[in-house]
UniProtKB/TrEMBL annotation:
<dbReference type="Pfam" id="PF12697">
    <property type="entry name" value="Abhydrolase_6"/>
</dbReference>
<dbReference type="GO" id="GO:0009507">
    <property type="term" value="C:chloroplast"/>
</dbReference>
<dbReference type="GO" id="GO:0015994">
    <property type="term" value="P:chlorophyll metabolic process"/>
</dbReference>
<dbReference type="GO" id="GO:0047746">
    <property type="term" value="F:chlorophyllase activity"/>
</dbReference>
<dbReference type="InterPro" id="IPR000073">
    <property type="entry name" value="AB_hydrolase_1"/>
</dbReference>
<protein>
    <recommendedName>
        <fullName>AB hydrolase-1 domain-containing protein</fullName>
    </recommendedName>
</protein>
<dbReference type="InterPro" id="IPR029058">
    <property type="entry name" value="AB_hydrolase_fold"/>
</dbReference>
<feature type="domain" description="AB hydrolase-1">
    <location>
        <begin position="194"/>
        <end position="450"/>
    </location>
</feature>
Length: 465
């Protein structure tokens, strides 16, 4: 999401209303289970790398139409889904995070419940219970899945075990030090690397649904940008797409050998695009832009049309309010309430109302309770570095780019200047593909993750990496 979009939604109202042996045996079983899972994981990775090498994409005339073709028109060679060299498909292992577990005695029952889920061969191990997170406590679980079971189907089934209590994310959380700040990220899968970059107010969890599709054939990282999610929120940081791009570049260089494909949404797209310029083609191998933002805040809107220029006084008014700490806190508390998050998602950001779940609201709400969250909110709205425009950045990008655009986006509309720029650019460059997604809003990756995943998988299969 874009900070300036939220200000447009909120400003009018804001201006109006301001045992020794047993333990040893258990440890031995734990060690054996972990070793088994690791061995399976290594074999699976080797197999997947071979499969990915055989991927092909159907480049029919329909693929370059202005409107998105029906999903069936984008084809993956069936070979990518078949065992190779006569060997049977192997079980796979995935680590997931389950929020909503708060008591130690719940762990064994949870383990048994998960073992009963279709497609689960075994629960290889279950980590220590950690207090905190959006549901009060969480645990990391490593699963061994049948070859025909998908991460998406299994995590959905585990979520359904107790949908009112559990919040299941299809990755394991990790942390990394960047410039002395803690950066949180999730990781799942094996294969060529993808880095997911969220928008304003988002975090790694906002990409959970898309990640569960992409992790079947790729190693997928979902990063919490500095100032968001479970990453640190320093008050003194100069938050901007340039700063986040530097973070993404350093992350890619730290965790990937030959670069990664970046997938960004909104401001995350702008940050990913900036990272491609800063890092070069050895760091960023391809780009997927989901409803790309034109700028971080109103200071970058000079090219975005007469209407937005007319609204400039509204943005100035919001900035004035945010400059007053007392009013900034009042506005932030109003903005971050669960009721308001749900209202924004259902009325402005999403078309598929079924995607707006209690779990999603909790994912977006929880980081706002951290110390420093209000300062990030203010700095993003009022910062003096809104980032370079996509029009300028694309002139320096020489890698394949896939642009997906929800045609029902109320914030960065499909008939707006940025979307029109990419439509025109596709006519001039063979390495840029633009698809308008019918009936999809500002967040294609979570509004309709199955559609976004199909286009992204096809794009990945077309890359020579």
């Amino acid at each position: 999401m874009e900070a300036m979009d939220i200000s447009m939604a909120l400003a009018p109202e804001c201006l109006r209303n301001v045992g020794g042996a047993g333990a040893i045996a258990a440890a031995a079983r734990e060690f054996s289970a972990r070793s088994s899972c690791r061995a399976i994981g290594i074999q699976t990775r080797q197999r997947r790398l071979r499969l990915i090498a055989n991927a092909t994409i159907d480049r029919s005339a329909g693929d370059i139409a202005r409107e998105a073709p029906a999903p069936g028109k984008i084809k993956i060679d069936p070979q990518i889904l078949q065992p190779v060299d006569g060997f049977p498909a192997l079980p796979r292992t995935f680590s997931i995070t389950i929020h909503g577990v708060t008591l130690e005695e719940e762990l064994e029952r949870l383990k048994q419940d998960i073992k009963g889920v279709a497609g689960v061969i075994d629960v290889c191990w279950i980590g220590e219970l950690v207090q905190g997170g959006p549901r009060g406590g969480y645990v990391t679980v490593q699963l061994e899945l049948q070859s025909d079971a998908t991460l998406r189907s299994v995590t959905s089934a585990i979520q359904a075990l107790d949908s009112s209590k559990l919040l299941v994310l299809p990755y394991k959380n990790n942390s990394w030090k960047w410039r002395d700040y803690k950066i949180n990220f999730g990781v799942a899968g094996c294969g060529n690397p993808i880095i997911l970059v969220h928008g304003f107010g988002g975090n790694a969890g906002h990409f959970g649904n898309l990640l569960s599709y992409l992790a079947e054939n790729n190693k997928v990282y979902a990063i919490d940008l500095l100032g968001f999610g479970d990453s640190e929120k320093p008050k003194q940081a100069d938050y901007s797409p340039d700063l986040w791009a530097e973070l993404v570049c350093d992350f890619a260089q730290e965790f990937t050998e030959n670069g990664a494909v970046l997938v960004g949404n909104s401001i995350g797209s702008l940050s990913a695009l900036t990272a491609a310029v800063k890092g070069g083609k050895n760091t960023v191998r391809g780009l997927v832009l989901l409803n790309c933002a034109g700028a971080m805040n109103r200071k970058g809107l000079t090219q975005d049309g007469f209407l937005l220029q007319l609204l400039s006084p509204v943005f100035v008014g919001v900035e004035y309010i945010l400059a007053q700490p007392r009013f900034a806190n009042l506005l932030f508390n109003r903005f971050r309430s669960k009721d308001n998050i749900r209202k924004i998602l259902t009325q402005q950001a999403y078309c598929n109302k079924e995607s707006v779940t209690d779990q999603l609201v909790d994912i977006l709400y929880h980081p706002s309770t951290d110390e420093g969250a209000v300062d990030v909110f203010v700095k993003v709205f009022t910062g003096n570095n809104p980032g370079s425009r996509p029009e300028k950045l694309m002139s320096e990008v020489e890698i394949p780019v896939l642009v997906l655009w929800g045609d029902r986006d109320a914030w960065t509309p499909a008939n707006g200047p940025v979307a029109k720029f990419f439509v025109d650019l596709e006519k001039k460059r063979n390495d840029v593909k633009f698809y308008a997604l019918e009936g999809v809003g500002h967040c294609p990756h979570d509004d309709r993750p199955e559609i976004a995943a199909e286009y992204i998988r096809s794009f990945l299969a077309s890359l020579n990496w």
